[in-house]
Amino acid sequence: MSYFVKFSDKFVRFFYSLHGGPGGRQVDPFLKSRREMALSRVIVRRLYERSGRISFMAEKETGRVEAFSDGVFAIAITLLILEIKVPKLSHEISSPVLAAALLDLWPSFIAFLLSFFAILIMWINHHGLFNLVRRVNPGFLYANGFLLLLICFVPFPTAVLAEHLEGGARDAAAAFYCGTFIFISIGYNLIWQCMVRGDLLKSEVPAEHVRKITRAYLLGMAVYAVSTIVALFNGYLGLGMNLSLWILWSVLGYRPSRSS
Q1: What are the domain boundaries of the chain?
Q2: The pTM is what?
Q3: CB-based contacts of 189: which residues, under 8 Å, 6+ apart?
Q4: Distance of CA 101 to CAs 5, 82, 227, Å?
Q5: DSSP conformation class of 27
Q6: Does the structure show a pLDDT above 80 at 29?
C-alpha cells in the first residue's frame, strides 16, 4: 500500500507542477493541497483495488491447477490396489490353502506399498511447490500436465514389478520401475525451472532457498538414473537406491526458513 501512496503523491506533484491546476490556471494553495489529497486518495484506492483483483485472479488460477492435480494423484494412488487380484480358488478349499495363496501375493503387496508411498511423497512435494508459486503461465501448465501423465503411468510399472519380482526377469522389471522415476524427476525439474525462470515464485522466496531446491532436484534425478543402471544387474539393489530418495524428498522443506 505504501508503494502506491508514494507513486500517487509523485504523480500528483508532477501534474500540478506542469499545470498548476485544472486547465493550467493557478489555484489557491489551500485548495490545491486539498485537491492533491483527494486525487491521491482516488489513485491509491484504484491502484490498490486493481492489485487486489490481480492477486485474487492469480490465486484462483493456481488453486484450480492444484485441485485438478490433486484429483489425478488421488486416482493414480487408488488404481494401485486394483493390481492385487483375489486368488482364484475353489470354494471347497481349506483355510491353510487360502492363507498360502494370499502369502504368494507378497510381490504384489510389496509393489503396492512401494508405489503408494512413492506417490504420497510425490503429492506432498507437489503441494510444497504450489506453496511457493504465486501465479501460473502456459509453460507451467504444460510441465505440470507432463508430470501428471507420468503419475498416471505409475500403476503399470508397479504391476510389472509385482509380476516378475520373484522371477528370472526381476532385474529388468526393477530397472523398468526405477526408470519411470527418472522421467518423473524430469517432470518435477521442468515445473521448477518454469517457476524460477518464468518469475512465478512468490517474492518472499529467497535465492538460497531456490538454490537448495534446485540442487535437490538435480541430485534426485542423478540417483534415479544410477539406480536404474544398477537394477539391470541387481534388481533389489537398484530398488534400494531408488527408495533411499524417500529420505531426501521427506526432509526437503519447501517453506523458507527464517535464517535464509
Answers
A1: 58-251
A2: 0.75
A3: 217, 218, 221
A4: 75, 17, 32
A5: -
A6: no
